[in-house]
Design a protein that fits this description.
The complex is a heterodimer of chains A (452) and B (274). Chain A has helices at residues 8-22, 50-67, 81-90, 104-110, 118-128, 161-166, 175-185, 203-215, 233-247, 262-268, 280-290, 295-307, 338-349, 351-359, 370-375, 384-390, 392-395, 407-414, 417-426, 432-449; strands spanning 39-45, 70-76, 97-100, 140-141, 144-145, 148-154, 156-160, 274-277, 308-311, 322-331, 366-367, 396-397. With 452 residues, chain A is of the alpha/beta class. In chain A, the strands form 3 sheets. In chain A, strands 1, 2, 3, 6, 10, 11 and 12 form a 7-stranded mixed sheet that branches. Chain B contains 15 helices and no strands. Helix content of chain B is 74%, strand content 0%. Chain B starts with a helix and ends with a helix. With 274 residues, chain B is mainly α. The chains are: A alpha/beta (452), B mainly alpha (274). Chains A and B meet through helix 3, helix 4, helix 10, helix 19 and helix 20 of A and helix 13 of B.
Amino acid sequence: MADRRLTRRHFLAGAAGASAALALPLRLDAAPAVKKGASLRLWILKTYVEPTNKAIEASALRWAEKHGASVTVEYFTFEDVQTKYVAAIENKNTPDIGQLETGAPARFAGMGQLMDLTSFARQVEGEVGKPPGNVAPVTVIGGKTYALPWYIMPAFWYVWRDVFEKHKVKLPTTFDEAKAAAVALNRPKDNFYGMGQSWNRTADGYGVMQSLMYSYGVGWATKDGKYQSIKTPKMQTVMKWATDIYKEGLQPADTLTWTGSGNNENFIAKNIAQTSNGPSITFAMENAVAKATDAKERKAREEALANHLALPHPGGPDGRRMWAIAMSFGIFKNSKDPEAAMSLVAHLLSPEETLKVMKDSYGQFTPVLDKARAASKEYFNKNENYRNFGRATEWFSATGWPGPVTAAAAEVQASNVLTDAPAKVIVDKWSVDQAIDWADKKIKEIYDTIRA
Amino acid sequence: MLVVGLIGYPFSRAIWLSFTDKLVGYPERWVGLRNYLYLAEDDSFRTVVVNSLVFTGASVGLKVLTGLAMALVLHATWRWRNFFRGLLLLPWITSTVIIALTWRWMFDAFPGRGFFNSVLLDAGLLSSPIAFMATPGGAMAAVVVANWWRGFPFFGVSYLAGMQSIPGELYEAASVDGAGAWRRFWHITLPGLKHVLIVTILLTVIFTINDFNIVYVMTRGGPGTATQVFATYSYEVAFNQLRWGRGVTIAIYAVPLLIALIPLVSRALLRERA
């Protein structure tokens, strides 16, 4: 295999070429070069899959070693990502480079926190590749690129194949089929339920709600990112699905109270036939096989591993649109060494480094840049589940579909209005129309009062 | 000056922010009473106010009752008194996050894991687990119980100290006059504890109405908004929605009540000292 590592020489050549070609004055963000002794702070997401975290840190350290620089890697988790960035922004203590979740580039760019990386993105495109059209709007805001996408962390529709086969139930490809399967498989007396879908305040809740809405053709924003009402018959159908799975007793009674791990635990314990979750379930099950203490235990765990299927999220009448967490790298304007920061970002995004991290991710890391995607085909051909993991980018839809990701769209997701609406019906016994009116009013208020 | 600065600056800054549309990363702009008016009309906020009052009232009420019971038992027990006093203080010195996680586990409906469900199922009293925290009432009861458990030892120890300062002659005289246990409690113990009661109740109301950890760890304000209280809603609006002005206003809404309570606490404390 040809060595396609992104070297400093490549960078400089690319930067000089691009600058000349575009006849642009040489700017800081146009010529990544690393001074000896450069020191950077890098913030990355600490996922449940520890080897991924270590792999990213190791990749950053390889860059530091190569350039005689130092990188301080600091972690945030899904729990404290907002708190950390908010505190850093308000205290003007942002890192040089931050890994950003789906809504963050739009929000932080609007605040003037992120560097415009348009030229840089163009320069490194030849080495790292381009994102597909459905992922690019996460990092391109108002025609300018404020972050470079790296991977998406999708959720899949986990089902127990053996349970479906035993009861001769078709594997679901649509939300309607998923509900029909839940009805067919539900056995509350045996403490086994047809489904486990929580409308809670985590990505397991608002992420699936967005997949459901978008697949039914419901978006609260227009194609140009403006507010549009969700008071539509399609949204009524969405809400009916979201609430009927509770009203009809197809789920464990405490499903609405599950936090991030509730669906994992219930699925792995085989209390539910289907649930949505990231590939951390696969990670846990692969790990369980490795940790088996005797042959009998190993056999049982291998069977469980073989029987758990990660299907793409079901589709709806309007197609299959899977919301996912899209992680990108942004460089903060406060960075003392933007050139070094760009060099590190380009290093991390290079197909070789991306693949190294991906291979330690147990499928939860789906590269989005086309060069890494092309190079990852073999990895994702491991089995049926991994083939689905590898295709996640194809089905990806970002927050605010069909429009671009905007600060307002990100706030709609963050306000929990999307999951509080079905909860109003399930818990407070509101009517579906009442809950839709309530959610629509909240969404409109966000769009009316958000600052550009 | 230092004390005034440490208390005065954050407080006045918070008041100022509540009159602005401050968003994280943007400079604040004066909007007058807009945040207050918005919240006054916000049905989610009205739920938060009711939840906060229920959470605070129920938690403090339970703490007073069990604190009194604990103090009475310890006051009447000479043997091992100090041991039990120390033992009962354990919840108070345990980390709140640990307490919240433990109680969440106790109420869990996951088969074979939740303490209450496991006991009831094993005893044959249940055929399937009860999802205690799945209903608004159950979830509120769960966070109240966790908060009560953490705080009642403080009440018990305070009341015990108060009881020990009541002269024994009063009880002896009352007994000679034929007063039973209830009359002695009602006419001697309770009046003797009046100031301690006032101080503990007022201080705990202030702490509880601002409590964040227990609710956030156990329910995150759910299911739906059934346990959303001032602190968790303020956090959600300020940190997730990035609307600091409005988030601060949510917290400020509780201030008039707390400001009214502070002079009462101070007066009771001063009287106690006198």
